[in-house]
Amino acid sequence: MLAAVLSATIVGLEALPVSVEVDVGPGLPTFAIVGLPDPAVQEARERVRSAIRNSHYEVPPRRTIVNLAPGDRRKEGPALDLPIALAVLIATGQLAQHAVTGHLAVGELGLDGSVRTVPGVLAVAQAAQALHARGLLVPEANALEAAAGEEVPVYAIPTLRAAVQHLQGTHPIQTTEGAVLDPPPEDAAPDDLAEVRGQGAARRALEIAGAGGHNLLLIGPPGVGKTMLARRLPTILPRLSGAEAVEVTKIYSVAGLLPAWQGLITRRPFRAPHHAASAPAIVGGGSSARPGEITLAHHGVLFLDELPEFRHDVLEGLRQPMEDGIVVVARAAGTVRFPARFSLIAAMNPCPCGYRGDGRRDCTCTPGRLQHYLARLSGPLLDRIDLHVEVPRPPTDELLSGNPGEPSSAVRERVTVARMRATTRAAACQAVGLPLRGPQRWGPVSAEALAFMRAAADRLVLAARATERVLRVARTIADLEGAEAVAVHHLAEALRYRVLDRWAPPAP
To answer: Where in the chain is the domain with CATH 3.40.50.300?
Structure first.
């Protein structure tokens, strides 16, 4: 007898529909799975047989063939266990085909028949919506995540037997309500900008970076608060919108990093990989094209501490995603595109020993060693970092003072208003058919400001990309101020945040 159950497998960040076909016929008692299964899918044979038997159903000693269509795409992971088991029960006459038709099922089976959590369920739910499925059968621990789509009924399945009884109508399972996007409570925030003492210039640069989505490089000796500042950037960014929360949750679900029983992620991501991480770990890739740290930081912050210590191929691999907001991973089996629209905040010491220009400790670096250290950062990479800011050692009196700084909530309000101004300007450009690149993005610029920018670009020998970045930062400063046109003082402040353009190491 032939049976078919609809399921899905993850390819990149999307779910590929899979038709699980089972044929049970006469012959030696074998159980074969075809259709490019990986080892985890092949092992489903033993899990499915034990789960069916321990759920008090019959596993007939007959020839069983499982086909996973389409047969030209590789199927990975144990998420196909549940649909395979349901198809076997249909093929052996223990469940009616019409009861399952139109439903999509995913889930790993335990030997006792329990249904365990699997990654990528939110992507599967989106695929079910596109297929107009009647219902989605998922593990209990994935139900809140799957219900974020709110268009397909989601049924939380605890066991294989419960799934069969639900489909037969003897013990129906209630649908899971969709997740509500409530902002996280303020008192639950792990960090707040009010904890930062002094560092006025760095705090200002952090606010500008948040308002314009700019990349930021903090340069200073050890222990001055660079990491502390970086960890507080997510707290001044606007709240995740509903669409952004779904995107972030989908990424973490596919990566297997979404905790069980969790719905939508409501906080902006903050990723801080170690400098020893490989290029596939940062950029994405590997044998099965998995999302990297830059994708896990989508709509959030990627923090690279000790920037010059990262491998050359890792740093150069960041250039295209920083420009385009996506990363393309090409493999022989196909090409996968991962979103990577993140804010980069990096930190580095001013020299290998860390104390160049400190004023309290002498620098022990030779000119040649210093030049080699700074040469680890290529010009094209630095051009893509909008703000380079020196973070000096704060006075002891400021550190010991009991006066808190401005809280993150106050800064977030200004950042949100500035982003709304930028969004309104972009919408106005689109309404009249103007491109969102070049002068249209910067808005009006006064004649005096243009003359000032020409002189500064010639004096500092700024590349075309660096010149554009300065104008973008000046536009953000104007938005924070509420000014319609970019003025000279906006450009002057933006140029102050280009430390490395005028900071050359001494000749060896």
So the answer is: 186-408
3-state secondary structure of 176: coil
Q: Are 231 and 241 in contact (CB under 8 A)?
A: no
For domain 2-168, say whether CATH 1.20.140.10 is its number.
Answer: no
395 secondary structure, DSSP code = P
Q: Pairing state of beta strands 301-304 and 115-116?
A: unpaired
Q: How far apart are CA 265 and CA 262, in angstroms?
A: 8
The answer to whether residues 453 and 471 touch, using CB atoms and an 8 Å cutoff, is: yes
Q: Can you give the pLDDT of all 508 residues of the chain as single tens digits?
A: 789 999 999 998 999 999 999 999 988 889 999 999 999 999 999 999 999 999 999 988 899 999 999 988 889 999 999 999 999 999 999 999 999 999 999 999 999 999 999 999 999 999 999 999 999 999 999 999 999 866 899 999 999 999 999 999 999 999 998 765 556 555 445 678 888 887 888 999 999 999 999 999 999 998 888 999 999 999 999 999 989 999 999 999 999 999 888 888 989 999 999 999 999 999 988 777 889 999 999 999 999 999 999 999 999 999 999 989 999 887 766 788 999 999 999 999 999 988 888 877 888 888 889 888 888 998 889 888 999 999 988 877 776 776 777 899 999 999 999 999 988 887 776 665 555 555 556 678 888 998 998 998 888 888 888 888 899 999 999 999 999 889 999 999 999 998 876 655 444 4
Task: Judge contact between 352 and 373, C-beta under 8 A.
Answer: yes
Domain with CATH 3.30.230.10 in the chain: 2-168
DSSP string, 44-110: HHHHHHHHHHHTT----SSEEEEEEESTTS-B-SGGGHHHHHHHHHHHTTSS-HHHHTTEEE--EEP
Q: How many CA atoms lie within 13 A of 7 on its CB side?
A: 31
What does the alpha-carbon distance between residue 481 and residue 224 come to, in Å, rounded to a whole number?
28
- Rounded CA separation 154/95 (Å): 20
Q: Hey, what CATH class is 186-408 in?
A: alpha beta
3 state DSSP class of 334: strand
Amino acid making up residue 324: D
Residue type (1 letter), 322:
M
Q: Distance of CA 145 to CAs 244, 292, 318, Å?
A: 14, 21, 30
Q: Please tell me whether residue 118 adopts helix, strand or coil conformation.
A: coil
